[in-house]
Amino acid sequence: MTTVNTVFIESIDPRFDAAACMNCGVCTALCPLEIIPLPRMLFREVMLGLEDKIIENEDTIYSCLLCKMCEANCPAGVPIAENIRLLRNYINSALYGLGR
Amino acid sequence: MSLPKKAILGILTDNLLNRGSVLPLSDRTAIQWSDGLDIPRGGETVLYTGHMYQIMPYLGTMANRMKAMENSWITKFMNLGRFVNRFINVSRFMAFPGKNEKQTYNNILRAIALLLRKGGVKYGYLYEDELYSGALIYDQGVDMALANHARRVRRVFEDHGVRKVITVDPHTTNMLRHVYPEILEDFDLEVQSYLEVLADADLENAEKSNGEVMIHDSCVYARYEGVIEQPRYLLRRAGFTVKSPELSGALTHCCGGPIESLFPSRAHEIAAKRMEQLRTMGDPIAAMCPICLVNLKQAGKNNDEVGDIAEFLARALLEVPGPKERVTA
Hints:
The complex is a heterodimer.
Chain A: H1 26-30, H2 40-47, H3 51-56, H4 58-63, H5 69-73, H6 80-94
Chain B: H1 5-19, H2 27-31, E1 45-48, H3 52-69, H4 78-85, H5 99-118, H6 135-139, H7 143-160, E2 164-167, H8 170-183, E3 190-193, H9 194-200, E4 212-215, H10 219-224, H11 229-237, E5 241-243, H12 264-278, E6 285-287, H13 290-299, E7 306-308, H14 309-317
Parallel strand pairs in B: 1-2, 2-3, 4-5, 4-6, 6-7
Helix pairs in contact in B: 1-4, 3-5, 3-13, 5-14, 9-11, 12-13
């Protein structure tokens, strides 16, 4: 069962910005890693408050190359690489105790 | 089983905060490349290596060890490794690159310094005061540690009265030009990559043709910093016919390097994929980032398949040995 954490988004750095994402999938199609949840589905899960899903996808989040192939081609101009970095920042703080 | 991210990121962060770099080098190792070049100490304009080229032989060796550890029972002891690392620099026991490998990367820095000199560019060097920029920690999202470290780096620039920084790699360029100004108030140094500086400098054209070269654009130069035309322009002036793979410029394909520390096997797969794209024409390959260089070299069939752009330029414009004919410094 999926649990919705309605205040999860507040625990992510406020610079996280995926509001313009329309889930078109260009990012996923262009990803050199060919990992399916990267990055549009992750962003949707953040906005829906699916904290468990984000933690489940910890490996995916850290395996992003931050190469910006997706971002350079995103029709909505979503700052994808920075969003991924901020998700790492959340995991570092919430799970690894590495602070912010 | 993947490598334990918490322990590895913890070690990297502890190293940055306590020892000034994710992979601390001795002062001697960091500045050895400059032996005999008589670069003035400090000054308003400095050549800033950010230790990236010097770290690479160690990082490459360590990544191979980490790759061997993936799926091994040893990973269970990495938390203990982090504890021990607080007292003893564990990374010092994990990487022993060969002399030739260290010399290769030092020679690239020497080539950059000499090319700038040939172009009439005046610069100093901070020697043992120079610090790593913190790029890897920034990428991994450990922002608190990065902010602390960035303040130390700024203090070094202030203490030496630096106004302009000439960088040698894309990651340090991005950190100093775009990341530091976001996290530090009033950080307003002028920052340019040596490729940008050389493109505007008074370099003579090569007198003869030097053959063909396949260019591998760095993601960070191309998509973060917009440095795409300068390396091509410089190679053309150096007498090379520049070829680009299908995925190049703003659409360049990553070398896999950014995930080397946490997912070494996956990183090597990406590098192998990129090498397949680059070697289609059979030409020597020019990289312009030390991380790309070490990754693509590891995926190459031999050590000479890929070289740094500075080696190509130096061979053509300075008449010093290029990637296939290196000398000892």
